[in-house]
Structures are given as C-alpha cells and as structure tokens.
Design brief:
By secondary structure, the chain is mainly α. The chain has 2 domains: 26-121, no CATH class; 122-155 and 166-213, no CATH class. Helices cover 51% and strands 8% of the residues. It contains 10 helices and 6 strands. It has a two-stranded antiparallel sheet with strand order 1-2. The longest helix is centred in the middle third of the chain and has 19 residues, at 78-96.
C-alpha cells in the first residue's frame, strides 16, 4: 500500500507503541500476555504490611497503566471485556481479602457484586471506554492533514467478508455513544460529527454516568 510517496508493507501483525496489532483486528492475545505478566504483582497486594488504600493506589498508578497501555485503539469483544473484569476482580480479592459471615462466623470470599460498594472507582472496562471516547474526540479534531484522521473518516472500498462481521473500533465507539447519552450514529459522517462535539474532560464524569446507567 502506498501513502503519498511512501510504501507500506502488508504484515499479519506488528508492534505499535508496545501493542501487537493483527490483520484480524484481534487484541485477545495481547490482553492475555499483559494480564499474565501482572501475576507477579499479586504477592504485593496480599501483603499485610500495606493498607487497603495504598494497595488500591498501587493498582491504579502502577498495574492498571501497564495493562491498559494503548487501550484507546482497542476493539474489544464481550469475551475480552470479561477477561479484563475477571482480572480486576482477582486484584480486588487480593486487596480486600475475605469477609466474615455475620451469621455463621465463617470466612468467605467476596462476591463480585460486593466489590461495587468496596471499590468506588470506575471498573477497568469503564476506564477503557472513557479513554477510547477521549481519543476518538481528539482524532476527529486533528484535521484533514493528519493521517490518523484520514483513517478514521475514510471509507474503504469493497465488501466485508461473509459471515458474522468482526467488531471494529468504530463499532465500539458507536456502542459507547449509545451508553453515554443514547446517541446512535448511523453513518460514519454523522459519527464523526457526534464525536467532534462530544467533550469528555476526564474519566470520572463519563465513567460515573455509565455506572448509574
């Protein structure tokens, strides 16, 4: 493929900003690799020498940025979102430990729904959605002279392959728009206009609204 005067080789996968991108638009293996590399951090979150608040800060400032590096460009399926939630729940179980049953007096593991009360910050999937929305707004405001902008607004020729279509980054943005404000961009031009006018100043506002929806 040629862009201006430069030729770009066609590859099945390549590394970009530390993330493996594939021609199948799949981030599944990259996520698995990152979550596996974070297993070594579990022992630190189990330490009794650290307070729970400090453990949460370690997770938010050290572990989470490594796992979500470059997530603005991810196109996630429901299976991949579930993998991220499972990972975060494992982290939170390490942080908060077990709970003593008031009736039986026995110790038990915390249920997933109990983490919503203990962990007041947005969950990992909401963080991904917030960053993706902010990046989409940043890209469409770049202008026609930027290559990234042309990729987003461009309309590829030809037809998609038969069978169930793979979820695209654009599809994720449309779903995020519906979730944040009930907005549905039916075509790409309207999608760009909608994202252009959307402002997500920081993760907290968007994620808080998503949690209450």
């Amino acid at each position: 493929m040629k862009v201006d005067s430069s030729s770009i080789e066609r590859l099945e996968e390549f590394k970009y900003l530390g993330t493996t991108l594939t021609n199948q638009n799949s981030i599944q293996e990259e996520i698995k690799s990152r979550l596996k590399s974070m297993n070594a951090c579990y022992y630190l979150l189990s330490s009794r020498l650290l307070s729970k608040n400090l453990k949460i800060k370690i997770y938010r400032t050290i572990i989470l940025p490594v796992v979500l590096h470059g997530c603005e460009t991810w196109s996630l399926t429901l299976r991949e979102e579930r993998s991220l939630r499972v990972f975060e729940n494992r982290v939170l179980r390490r942080v908060f430990g077990s709970k003593r049953d008031e009736v039986t007096g026995e110790w038990r593991k915390l249920r997933n729904e109990e983490f919503r009360d203990l962990y007041s910050l947005p969950n990992i999937v909401r963080v991904v959605k917030s960053r993706r929305m902010r990046w989409a707004g940043h890209v469409v405001r770049m202008g026609e002279g930027r290559g990234v902008y042309r990729v987003v607004v461009g309309k590829p020729e030809g037809k998609r392959s038969l069978g169930r279509p793979r979820r695209r980054w654009e599809d994720n943005i449309k779903m995020d728009l519906r979730e944040v404000g009930g907005v549905l961009a039916q075509d790409r031009d309207r999608l760009v206009d909608t994202v252009m006018n959307l402002r997500v100043p920081y993760a907290g506002n968007f994620l808080t609204s998503c949690r209450t929806s």
